[in-house]
Amino acid sequence: MKQVAVVIGGGQTLGAFLCAGVAEAGYRVAVADLNAQHAWQVASDINARLGEDTAFGFGVDATNEESVIRLSKAVDGQFGQVNLLVYSAGLAKAAPITQFNLVDFDLSLQVNLVGYFLCAREFTKLMIRDGVAGRIIQINSKSGKVGSKHNSGYSAAKFGGVGLTQSLALDLAEYGITVHSLMLGNLLKSPMFQSLLPQYAQKLGLRADQVEQYYIDKVPLKRGCEYQDVLNMLLFYASDKASYCTGQSINITGGQVMF
């Protein structure tokens, strides 16, 4: 039986790329997203390339406990097991702290941290039930290791994700389930980063078309983080080759962050 991966936030951008990548690596994939139509489309595209029943789309609000419980039951009913959980849902709101709205701060915590907790809790239950030495991988950020100016909500949630990853790793070690956070550098071509260009330009006193180069210049390897970089590391830490590693926060930053 093929292994099964669940990708939360799999309906677009990086999440959709990871869904396709794990499917090409041999997993069957549950594509879960707040936008159910996006999830269904990603699953349909995967099936068109790799064969029917490779992927299924599901709608989920990862910040809502009942919605996550429904998702776990639906995935269990469709696939019968879960071997890999990837939490790729994320949201960033940028503003100076004196102008940072509480609703935006709370939303950052809900999407980036609470959703991770809820999904890890529910899908862990399935892994333990079936005796699966599963893998849980959170898509995090270098902002979970170093503070980020004007991104207090995002950075706070991502720092919290590191602590949650370590706690989950300790809780789940006895079951052979490993847990990691991937600490991404700037995904310069991602829609999220591109949407923040005007705010970053204002913050830095630059033109919007100068912002990408500003961030590239901060990276020792002189390029931004790419989707393929993330997939490469995800597949390694999901594999048996990384079975003796758990609780780690792995930098994918081109040397920009080294601890």
Main β-sheet description: 7 strands, parallel
What is the H level of CATH, i.e. the homologous superfamily? Answer: NAD(P)-binding Rossmann-like Domain
N/C terminus separation: 38 Å
What share of residues is helical?
Answer: 40-55%
Q: What is the C-level CATH assignment?
A: Alpha Beta
Q: How many β strands by DSSP?
A: 7
**Spatial sequence of strands, sheet with the most strands:** 3-2-1-4-5-6-7
Give the DSSP E fraction (strand runs of 2 or more residues): 15-25%
User: What are the low-pLDDT stretches, counting only 5+ consecutive residues below 50?
Assistant: none
Strand-and-helix sequence, N→C?
EHEHEHEHEHEHHHHE
Total helical segments: 9
What is the mean predicted local confidence, pLDDT? 96
GO molecular function: sorbitol-6-phosphate 2-dehydrogenase activity
Pfam families: adh_short
Protein name: Sorbitol-6-phosphate dehydrogenase
Family: Belongs to the short-chain dehydrogenases/reductases (SDR) family.
Describe the structure.
- By secondary structure, this protein is α/β, with parallel strands linked by helices.
- It has one domain: NAD(P)-binding Rossmann-like Domain (Rossmann fold, 3-Layer(aba) Sandwich), CATH 3.40.50.720.
- It is built from 9 helices and 7 strands, in the order βαβαβαβαβαβααααβ.
- It has helices at 13-24, 36-50, 65-79, 102-130, 152-172, 191-195, 197-204, 211-216, 227-238; strands spanning 4-8, 28-33, 55-59, 84-87, 135-141, 178-184, 248-252.
- The chain has a 7-stranded parallel beta sheet with strand order 3-2-1-4-5-6-7, sandwiched between helices.
- The longest helix is centred in the middle third of the chain and has 29 residues, at 102-130.
- It starts with a strand and ends in a 7-residue tail after the last strand.
- The mean pLDDT is 96.
